[in-house]
Design goal:
about 300 residues; 3 helices; mainly beta; five-stranded mixed β-sheet
Length: about 300
């Protein structure tokens, strides 16, 4: 992937996230109560039992309503969506394009056959709590992470992050276990100037926006940020250096897409592919890039890391 391709990918991710967010609005059910309406004709569930009817009132008819036991019939009227559900339906999920869904709303009463219930659907700004459908990590905003960078800078990673609703900021570091081969640097006159092998350390700061794709268990997080690289030189075998060319530095931009799974409220497992674009190298790093392809790959290209995050 070249730089233009990465920029296009980042734009697509951010635009898609912004479309989903739609100014941070959320769906809510204002009230849920028994109605005085009468069922004029029975609709039977899959067990042959009469259904209950739930009348959802709203000025917007584009809501998708998903009861946990399914629905047997739907009528869309002016200002009302009417659904027939089995007895003992307990949970309802409400979705709308471009808006945070209301996931697993718990009905505050028992649903009985042949009864009619009424509810009002509305939207609120995301800055307000929207009930239990909020992301599970919201009550535990801080997290620490540990993992392993698979390629190309293989080594352990650590991170410290802050989650505020769907937004998160994370600082992390990777210590490369794979050093370069011994590199011998010669002057224009052909004399040996220095010889080192280099071990990389990567420090990153990233911002992400988390979007649930399967209730609260699975989410994706588009991320953007920066990556600082320090290459620490150790003397090549049987060679003593004067200190020149010992350390090198570079800065890269990053775009990533993190996939997470939450087996518990306090723990998330993640796989994160990311792409780095080199922005600036110091003079030593520019010189080293001529000698070793690993350093070029550490500065720019695709990488993959995996690990866990513990919320506290």
């Amino acid at each position: 992937m070249n730089r233009n391709g990465l920029i296009g990918l980042i734009v697509v991710l951010l635009v898609g996230t912004a479309t989903w967010a739609q100014n941070g609005k959320r769906i809510q059910i204002i009230k849920f109560e028994i109605s005085n309406s009468v069922i004029t004709k029975d609709v039977l569930d899959r067990n042959g039992m009469p259904c209950a009817v739930i009348r959802f009132f709203s000025d917007d008819m584009n809501y998708v309503i998903e009861p946990n036991l399914g629905k047997l019939k739907t009528d869309t009227l002016i200002g009302e969506i009417r659904i027939w559900v089995p007895k003992d339906t307990r949970l309802i999920t409400v979705r709308h394009e471009g808006v945070y869904p209301l996931v697993n709303y718990k009905i505050p009463m028992r649903i009985e056959s042949k009864h009619v219930y009424a509810a009002t659907i509305d939207m609120i700004e995301g800055s307000r709590r929207a009930g239990k459908e909020a992301i599970s990590s919201r009550s535990h905003p801080f997290y620490i992470g540990a993992g392993y960078s698979v390629t190309p800078m293989m080594g352990p990673t650590v991170a410290l992050g802050l989650s505020l609703g769907h937004h998160n900021i994370e600082a992390g570091a990777t210590y490369g276990l794979k050093a370069t081969d011994d590199l011998y640097l010669y002057g224009t006159e052909g004399t040996l100037k220095a010889g080192y092998h280099y071990t990389p350390i990567k420090i990153q700061l990233r911002y992400g926006y988390e979007v649930n794709i399967i209730k609260k268990a699975v989410s994706i997080t588009p991320q953007v940020g920066g990556s600082y690289h320090l290459y620490m030189g150790q003397n090549a075998e049987n060679l003593i250096n004067d200190g020149s060319y010992k350390n090198a530095q570079s800065i890269s931009a990053l775009g990533a897409l993190r996939l997470t799974w939450s087996p518990t409220k306090h723990l998330k497992l993640h796989v994160t592919p990311e792409y780095l674009v080199s922005i600036k190298n110091d003079n030593v790093c520019n010189t080293l890039c001529w000698y070793d392809d690993d350093i070029n790959k550490w500065n720019e290209g695709m990488s993959l890391n995996a690990g866990l995050m513990f919320y506290f």
